[in-house]
Amino acid sequence: MEIIVLPDPDAVARTAADIIEERVRRGPSVLGLATGSTPLGTYRELIERHRHGLSFAEAQAFLLDEYVGLPAAHPESYRSVIRREFAGHVDFAADAVHGLDGEAADPAAEAARYEASIAAAGGVDVQLLGIGTDGHIGFNEPMSSLASRTRIKTLTEQTRRDNARFFASPDEVPEHVLTQGLGTILEARHLLLLGLGEAKAAAVAAAVEGPVAAICPASALQLHPHVTVLVDAAAAAELAHTEYYQYTYGRKPAWQGF
Ligand SMILES: N[C@@H]1[C@@H](O)[C@H](O)[C@@H](COP(=O)(O)O)O[C@@H]1O
């Protein structure tokens, strides 16, 4: 795991975009996209680079999760959010951006279909991840099995409160979601976890320096051979070993498989 502490959210966005750009330029790629506010700067940076020639025409993308019960056209469905914040501004081919159908009559069948389509694409090359204040990734809430696959989950009250800002009222936040499982996420070849702001400091510290435990789903990343964690100074505030992370970052090329 490489932990890179950067001065501010802009530096996190630029570094995340560097990693994604490097993979996209290397040839056909499969990107794993996250929603939430954390990756928005990265998406803005990638859109800007697209305006300067970076093409996503050979890339495919898979979303991490989706609310159950929201139609695709709802402004807060994750399929809408990704189109509005990123995919709609770059040149992905038609049908290259895949999401879960939150309105599927049979959520288990939808989850199985999604797993199969990720596999058919050859798996995810770079998976972008945010982190919830409770340590969730995707919508894998605390106590999710570290081996879980794509499935329906019930949101915690805390996550519903955290996400209420995107809806007209807290009651409108769906109670259920479909999410890639921790086992699914761990199959991506490179995991890129972003943490911004002091509200994430405790979750980042638990994920990176705490024990691997279902109480902090993001701690499952410690089991993966190629993880890059990009945090701003505020989100790094509760890490105990920042001196070491800064020291190593200055001494070897970042994210290239150390
Ligand atoms: N399902 C998403 C996660 O993928 C995201 O990481 C988390 C944090 O959101 P934010 O980045 O807005 O803090 O929110 C949601 O619950």
What does this structure look like?
Helix 1 crosses helix 2. The model has no long low-confidence stretch (mean pLDDT 95). This protein has one domain: Rossmann fold (3-Layer(aba) Sandwich), CATH 3.40.50. The protein is α/β, with parallel strands linked by helices. Helix 2 links the parallel strand 2 and strand 3. It has a 7-stranded parallel sheet, sandwiched between helices. The chain has a 3-stranded antiparallel sheet with strand order 4-8-7. The structure holds 2-amino-2-deoxy-6-O-phosphono-alpha-D-glucopyranose. The site of 2-amino-2-deoxy-6-O-phosphono-alpha-D-glucopyranose has 14 residues, from helix 5. Its EC number is 3.5.99.6.
Unreliable residue runs? none
Task: Say how many strands there are.
Answer: 10
β-strand percent reads: 15-25%
H and E string: EHEHEEHEHEEHEHEHEH
| Structural class designation | alpha/beta
SS element count, helices: 8
- Say what oligomer this is: single chain
Family: Belongs to the glucosamine/galactosamine-6-phosphate isomerase family. NagB subfamily.
Enzyme class: hydrolase
InterPro entries: Glc/Gal-6P_isomerase, Glucosamine6P_isomerase, Glucosamine6P_isomerase_CS, NagB/RpiA_transferase-like
Pfam family, one: Glucosamine_iso
